Amino acid sequence: MGRAPCCEKLGLKKGPWSDEEDQILISYIQQHGHPNWRALPKHAGLLRCGKSCRLRWTNYLRPDIKRGNFTKEEEDTIIHLHEKLGNRWSLIATKLPGRTDNEIKNVWHTHLKKRLESHKTTTHDIKKCHMKSKCGSKVLYREEPAVSQCLVKSKHKSPNEERSSVSNHESSSRDSSSVVEQATTTNSTCVARNVELDHGTFLDDSFWLEALSCEGDNVIESDSLTNVLGIETLMENTSSNTSCNACDTNMWNDIFTHIEEELPELLEF
DNA sequence: AAAAAGCTCAACCGCTCCTAA
DNA sequence: CTTAGGAGCGGTTGAGCTTTT
Length: 269
Known about the structure:
The chain is an all-alpha fold. The chain is built from 13 helices and four strands.
């Protein structure tokens, strides 16, 4: 079904907004509100499309917008919510008064994502170090490219499938895709990190990802997912001021105890 | 001091959802 | 039920700014 373009391109201005345009938009909305964005620019005398006006207002001109750097608390909130909700920026924005989805998205891509990635590298190194030091010459750590079928399926869902699954069970599908995003590299391979537990259970990242991303009978509640992701946080807290030498057994006991307590169903897998 | 590289963020684009006719 | 159009969302872009070499 073909659609008319959202606005007539001809004669409409694009690019950065001038102060004058801002003032026109602000005063118009203060007087009339914005019942119809499409008609607004015409009524207000702006050579912009309605979409552009809406974006300018919601992302920049709204009086309740909080400007300036994000606080640590806000960043933590974003990270936490992103773990739970995935890239649903507008939903995340509702939990951060005064912040816009666009702003949050930018912060995520410019700061938080990189921070998490570097943190992940750090924890990865720590795990590696721990496995070697704890088990002596026995090599428990193995690194190889691996793509789980389940991940591929999740990643390559059609937009329709993804949308509908989001609306049907708010957090399962999109959550899993966010996990995939965090756990895979940019060329769609993922690094499998295998960990042998004291009682012989063998876990690796592809296991976690399969368990967490597959839909259907074994859908895991988002809270459980957060618990799993909380492991990373625990590791971050534990490792933040430490070097490899400090990878002590207690930390790992805490982590695996946490897993066993919170997610027994996974260990039975 | 100048050029190159990296970073930030406002804005655009294309898509889907929702709803009224 | 179908269609059209408005609203909103998330991904992406690129100009401008900052930092590094």
